[in-house]
Amino acid sequence: MTDTRTDTDLIIAGGGLAGATLALALARVVPELRVTVVETFPLSPDALPEDYQPSYDARSTALAWGSRLIFENLGLWQVLAEHATPIHHIHVSDRGRFGATRLHAQDHGQAALGYVADNRWMGLSLMRALLDTPVSWQAPAEVTGMTPMPGGVRVEIRKGDDQYSLTGQCLVVADGGRSGLREQLGFVTRTEDYGQNALIANVSTSDAHGFTAFERFTEAGPMALLPHGSPVTAENQSALVWTLTDSALEQVLALSDDQRCQALQERFGWRLGRFTRIGECHHYPLKLTTVDEAVRPGVALVGNAAHALHPVAGQGFNLALRGLMTLVEQFRRAVDEGTPLGDLSILGEYQRLHRQDWQQTVQFSDSLIRVFGQSLPPLAAARDAGLVGLDLVPGAKRWFARKAMGTGGRKPIVSRADCSKEPARNDQ
After folding, report:
1. Which parts of the sequence belong to the FAD-binding domain (predicted)?
2. What share of the chain is helix, strand, coil (3-state, %, to 5)?
3. How far is the CA of 360 from the CAs of 40, 150, 267, 328, in angstroms?
């Protein structure tokens, strides 16, 4: 089903990880659709580097086991795994107290609980895969507005000094939580400020991480250390997410690298030996941002444009990915039924199916931050009992593991002829 009265069928505003993944999934599952991606950065599938050299300071994303399964169905996992470090164990603890819980992949019959993937490699792999699809690109360009029209939408685009319009059946906003397009289109967001900042960097330690992800809750805020780097050459490298108040962030940023390692040592402890190196530090304020109504006729929000979570639980991109596949599933249904992509019966069903997942994931992530952010002795004791209970009660531990692995929610149907082959296995 294509509508020859429009320039394209679907317009995706944003060609980052979410937008590119959506474009690839549509090319695999709904190949009949004409898809156009509008991206502000000068990215193009026609001009990609031939080789890839990982950097120590490369940013990364935590991928749950369920996200690996999605990328397998899309035929991309074997490539992504080249620069993805498996998480075999998760250790959750409360600094200065006895409570702790541990998850092990082998206890759940899995090759890994999740992975830490290099963002730049993920983007490059997606773009290379898109080379073999008919997806078209407008880059560098920016969506500046949208007007409903019979049978679809008219999207205004700025490319350099040029202004032009593109018509399609539906616009998908996938340009992140900081873009103004969402507000410009009239979507109302709810934001809760945690009063904290995330400092992100790669670190090296004297002891090997053993493919263990550490979630460490402290009186000053949570922190996470995720195994990162080649399993052969970087068993002592981890990706750090360090939660800091405004004043604490200023103090840490004013320190030398050696002093930052010392401050991190004091906060995290010695489970990985001595911190020997900290790389380039990035930071941003932490807010819980949600949109109650993420769709309207002709337009849908996905990824961080629809919901932005605290990063310490590593749920953000995994939730976004599941939402993308749910949207693809509904677009597949629209094509099969001959319904316009932007019809509210299609977009409303996407929102309904995805809503329970994002509500549960937001509640899970937000409750971790709020419960472990309390320092009152009775609450601290209750946290310890809860962590010990998770470690001892099989049912509770399985529930926690499903949340961590991203396998506890609804599983969108994404298989089609082009991506139903047996997925390649690469467990590193």
Report:
1. 7-336
2. 35, 30, 35
3. 32, 36, 30, 21
Please compute the mean of the pLDDT values over residues 343-356 and round it to a whole number: 94
DSSP 424: P
Which fold is adopted by the domain 8-266+280-405? Answer: FAD/NAD(P)-binding domain (3.50.50)
pTM for this entry: 0.85
Contact status, residue 202 vs residue 57, Cβ threshold 8 Å: yes
Q: Where are the alpha helices (DSSP H) in 177-283?
A: 181-184, 246-253, 257-268
- Token representation of residue 265: 């040592």
* 34/189: higher pLDDT: 34
Evaluate if residue 424 carries a pLDDT over 50: no
**What angle, 0 to 180 degrees and rounded to 10, lies between the N-to-C axes of helices 344-372 and 377-392?**
120
Q: Say what the pLDDT of residue 376 is.
A: 39
Q: Compute the distance between CA of residue 311 and CA of residue 62 in angstroms, rounded to an integer.
A: 9
pLDDT at 384 over 80: no
Please report, for the chain, the start and end positions of each structural domain, with discontinuous segments joined by +. Answer: 8-266+280-405
Please choose, from the candidates 301, 302, 310, 284, the residue with its C-alpha nearest in 3D space to the C-alpha of residue 363: 310
What are 91-118's pLDDT values in tens digits? 887 664 445 678 888 887 888 989 999 9
CB atoms within 10 A of CB 24: 26
Residue 388 has pLDDT above 90, yes or no: no
* Closest alpha carbon to 413 in 318, 348, 332: 332
The answer to whether the beta carbons of residues 114 and 124 sit under 8 Å apart is: no
Pairing of strands 299-301, 221-227: unpaired
Cα–Cα distance for residue pair 57/392, rounded to 1 Å: 38
Alpha-carbon gap, residue 331 to 384, rounded angstroms: 46
Q: What is the CA radius of gyration of the chain?
A: 22
- Looking at residue 420, its pLDDT comes to 42
